[in-house]
Amino acid sequence: MNKIKQILFFPVNFISGRIRKTTAIAQDLKTGEGAIVEIGGKKVAAYKNVDGTIITLSPVCRHLGCIVGWNSTDKTWDCPCHGSRYAANGKVIQGPAKSNLKEVHL
After folding, report:
1. How far apart are CA 65 and CA 81, in angstroms?
2. 99 domain-assigned
């Protein structure tokens, strides 16, 4: 995405990620699948790893605070605002973010 589009769409992506309703349920995730779910009234990025453990992360990108989304093709958390990408476990793969997604302990 070019820089002008990023600047123009940043406010839309920032707000829409926060108001978008989620219908996914963490316990219903299949192995290798991730989704933004709501647990205890809080949005969480949830991923079910190969041993069936659900990893829960803050869905807030560490660059400028947009809400990441699950990329089912690459099995990554991708930020719609500036292109940061995180591994399923929240580790930064590609910036501009420099910090991993925060773990959420429920």
Report:
1. 9
2. no
Q: State both tokens at 41.
A: 């009234």
Task: With respect to residue 100, please indicate whether it lies within any of the assigned structural domains.
Answer: no
pLDDT, mean of residues 26-41: 90
Domain count, the chain: 1
Q: Considering only CA atoms, which of 57, 50, 51 is closest in space to residue 90?
A: 57
CB 15 within 8 A of CB 3: no
CATH number of the structural domain spanning residue 52: 2.102.10.10
0.85 surpassed by pTM: no
CA distances from 106 to 5, 19, 55, 57 (A): 36, 22, 10, 10
Task: Give 83 or 62, the one with higher predicted confidence.
Answer: 62
Residue 30's pLDDT is 92
* Structural domain boundaries, residue 24: 3-94
